[in-house]
Amino acid sequence: MKFHVLTLFPQMIMDALNTSITGRAIDKGILSVNAVDIRDYTHDKHLKVDDYPYGGGAGMVMQPGPVVECYENIVTKGTKPRVVYMTPQGETFSQAKAKELAQEEELVILCGHYEGIDERALEEIVTDYISIGDYVLTGGELAAMVVIDSISRLVPGVLNNDVSAETESFSDGLLEYPQYTRPVEFRGKKVPEVLLSGHHAKIDEWRHEKSLERTKRFRPDLYEAYLKDHPEERKN
Ligand code: 6GU
């Protein structure tokens, strides 16, 4: 899968994604990340890419020319890859959206800065508007990395272990159960006995119970949705 990231801070993207699991997938050729500097497409002699908003107001707005020319330069003629604009005004990102986007062969991700990008550039090229949650970041780059990371781990071959992408949180609508490793006792706390028993049915049952407890406590919204689909598991 190939990601093109249109940004004023390409180094931020490259440094983060060349690390750890995504870095290894890039080395293996399963992923590719092409971060492109929008500033390379300005025609301004001072390399300016933003200006004051028409109508007044605080901050600066990214001008449409460099953004659209940057897009036109990276996209292969005759292809129409989806273009995701990272913005707090977008639809909230989810595991379902990650799965949908992981089906694409090539994705363009556009990161804004300042007060955003001139609407005409967005109308010209953007197909999907994505937010990563209800809080405001200084720019789209961190959000783009979140989106790229979550899509990447769904691409076959990126994780060592292809079952884990499916068994983790959200695949069944519940949060993950707690995990333990050696030592068997740490500062007076023992690993739950059932996990040492070798009794796989009992272990599965215990883990499911812990998933339910945790989901009820931290994500009552998910817990209610789960019980709607599994009414036989409602206890009262
Ligand atoms: Cl995608 N961008 C910015 N700037 N802030 C955000 C966001 C995106 N998602 C949540 N906050």
TrEMBL record:
Residues 1-224 form the tRNA methyltransferase TRMD/TRM10-type domain. The keyword Cytoplasm applies. Its EC number is 2.1.1.228. It is found in: Cytoplasm. GO terms for biological process: tRNA N1-guanine methylation. CDD domains: TrmD-like (cd18080). Pfam families: tRNA_m1G_MT (PF01746). Keywords: Cytoplasm, Methyltransferase, S-adenosyl-L-methionine, Transferase, tRNA processing. Specifically methylates guanosine-37 in various tRNAs. Belongs to the RNA methyltransferase TrmD family. Homodimer. This is tRNA (guanine-N(1)-)-methyltransferase.
